[in-house]
Here is the input.
Amino acid sequence: MMRKLTIVFFSPTGTTRKVVKAIADGTGLEYDSIDLTLPSSRSQVLEFGSGDLVIMGVPVYAGRVPSLLSETIDSIKAEGALMVPVVVYGNRHYDDSLLELKDILEAKGAFLIAAAAFIGEHSYTAKVAGGRPDSEDLESAKRFGNGLISMLNKEPDSPAKFDVPGNLPYKERKPSKPDTPITGDACIECGICARNCPTGAIDFNDFSSADPSLCIKCCSCIKKCPSDAKSFSDGSVVSFSGWLEANCSERKQPELFTPVI
Ligand SMILES: Cc1cc2nc3c(=O)[nH]c(=O)nc-3n(C[C@H](O)[C@H](O)[C@H](O)COP(=O)(O)O)c2cc1C
Here is the structure.
């Protein structure tokens, strides 16, 4: 049975969005997009049912699904929907995030027909997985999307189960020290940073001021700034970036998981 395709994603620096869109493009179907990146979009209740195919993508934060999404994902209704969880990570590891997303969606009553972990340029440093997803990744995402359609065409009564890597209990969420990017003289006060901040942490009356209790260090403001005025000056993001550059430069490949039908 053909289904209505919807993509749902959270993507502060745009890599998850690119991957999920490429998968959807690969299906050849028309689709609706639900972008959960901005705070206003996360108050909607997502409701899917037996006529839906949903590809849901999130970036990996500290080996988990971003905690910011907990409420939104908790309120999803997905009884009978076919879903495809996708995580995008910055070439370190996706740890328990894909298992966590799969478990959440299955608990909502969705049938999962496939899952995937892709690689995106690390939010903290362009020296790790710089430019990814690149053309090779996007081709792989499109092929994966095309494969979903073949699976739909021979859809059994209840889709076969499959496993993804990950451990229980999931990786512990450790509190991170509050910090916000600094703003240099190059700031042209365009406000792109504030309008795109996923938590509304940046002050609309003073774009150089951000609330450390709201900032999730997603780096949206840094990567979207047209004049490169934002950066983390020191602290955990800078020191961890150095560790990533030294230890996570070897190219990882997308991992695709499908049931054996
Ligand atoms: C707070 C935070 C935590 C992250 N944790 C991980 C991680 O555990 N493993 C990893 O490989 N990448 C990690 N990353 C990198 C992102 O998962 C990666 O860059 C992803 O492509 C960003 O997605 P987006 O472009 O949709 O925002 C982290 C990024 C941020 C901002």
